[in-house]
Amino acid sequence: MSARESKRWVSRVLAAAFALLLPLAVVSWWAQSTVSSTDRWVATLHPLASDPVVTAYLAQEGAVTIVRDFDVERRIAAAIPQGAGLLAPTLTSALQHTIAAAITVTLGSATFQRLWDSENRLTHRVAVDLLEGRVKVGVSRARAVVIDLTPAMLDAITQLDAHGVTFLDPLKQQLSRHPTLSVQILNVRELHHAQRYYHLATVLWWLFPLLGVLSGGGVVMTSRPRRQGVRRVGLVAVGSGLVTYAALTIAITAASPLAPTPPSVTSAILTTMTSALAKYLLWVSLGGGVLAGLAWLTGPSPFARVTRRALGRGARALGGVLRTGASQSGVTHQDRGTLVHSRRLARIVQVADVVVAVVAPLLLWRRVTTLSQLITLVVLTGGWYWFSARLRKKLTGDSSTDAP
After folding, report:
1. 226 Cβ contact partners less than 8 Å away, ≥ 6 residues apart
2. Per-residue pLDDT tens for 97-139?
3. Is cis: bond before 302, omega within 30 of 0?
4. pLDDT greater than 90 at residue 21
């Protein structure tokens, strides 16, 4: 085997190592920066307090809990005339909806936002203690994995008092002594299973990024030309980031039906918990795409040279449009006027290409949070460039008429 072939194989092996180390580096960084930090964890889960899926579930569960534990239907049946006993289920259902609406109002208050953050802060501290192998005295295992939302139910009963519904007041003492409404955020058994991985990710969080940089640099150094190595590193980053992002999405979908809460609620919780990780993975893919694109754009391939010329013409056309506007629309001969108009339209399409190239990354940064949104953005962006290329070809006719 020649030295050139040996370097080629070494480059491929390093690229494979880079593909494995990059997701590990992102996950370890996320574990170190988000999971280990109480403040960042609370900030990450804060949006759940206003998530419509979560709040609707909590309101419904709170109303069901009050109606069940206080035996509301029996009390209504005893209070109405004996001949109207058949109306008890209907009246109970109506009251349950009223209680749910009152709880929904409570869940939208600033008081509940503070309650949610404080409960998440306590839950996170205990969870980190479990992950790090420490056991706090006086903290129950159940308290470590759930958020107590009974205060929201008490506030809802107080609101009902203001509207004349007072027969639920005896339930306040019972709820104060025995909290009955909670939402599970973390699972103790899964936390124990994750202890080893968490310890590895937090203690050696610097190792995976370092090895990733070394393997990526090795890919570049062992490639000829070096530009090809840079492009390979970028493409590996795109593929590795997107595959890991897809795996995360699939894992959330698979885990949602296994939790005690409804799948939609579990999915909302898990998606919010891993939102920072998903954003990091998308940024890695975007950075890899930009790196690979720059390496290709500066390369010697014919299409890269054509693209560079097209970008240059687009930039010049943008400057020309800004300088002259529509002042050059008047021409003497109709054929020449048609040609100039076609050229101008082609330049406008080139300017639109530049605008799409700027807007697409901004959308990826600010708006794209799910795999379906990412696929939609890629399809729309690719469709635009396919359409614009053919439109410019129609407008210019051939390459000779494309010159400014």
Report:
1. 220
2. 888 888 888 888 887 888 888 878 877 777 777 677 665 434 4
3. no
4. yes
Query: Closest Cα to residue 124, out of 94, 108, 109, 146?
Result: 146
Region at 146 (left for phi over 0; alpha for psi -120 to 50; beta for the rest): beta
Element (H, E) at 303: helix 302-324
DSSP for 113-159, please give it.
HHHHHHHHHHHHHHHHHHHTT---TT--TGGGTEEE-HHHHHHHHHH
Confidence class for position 144, pLDDT limits 50, 70, 90: very low
Distance of CA 178 to the CA centre of its chain: 36
User: First CA to last CA across the chain, in angstroms?
Assistant: 52
Q: Which residues pair with 183 in a beta bridge?
A: 147
246, 371 Cβ separation under 8 angstroms? yes
Q: Which of 92, 57, 62 is nearest to 74 (CA)?
A: 92
Mean pLDDT along residues 369-397? 78
pTM score of the predicted model = 0.70
d(C-alpha 381, C-alpha 347), whole Å: 19
Put residue 330 in one of left, alpha, beta given phi > 0 → left and psi -120 to 50 → alpha. Answer: beta
- Taking each continuous run of H as one helix and of E as one strand, the counts in the chain are 17, 2
Interacting residues of 348 by C-beta distance below 8 A, sequence separation 6+: 317, 321
Structure tokens given for 98: 């009223």
Q: What is the pLDDT of residues 325-364, one digit of tens each?
A: 444 444 444 455 556 666 777 777 888 888 888 788 777 7
| The pLDDT value given to residue 23 | 93
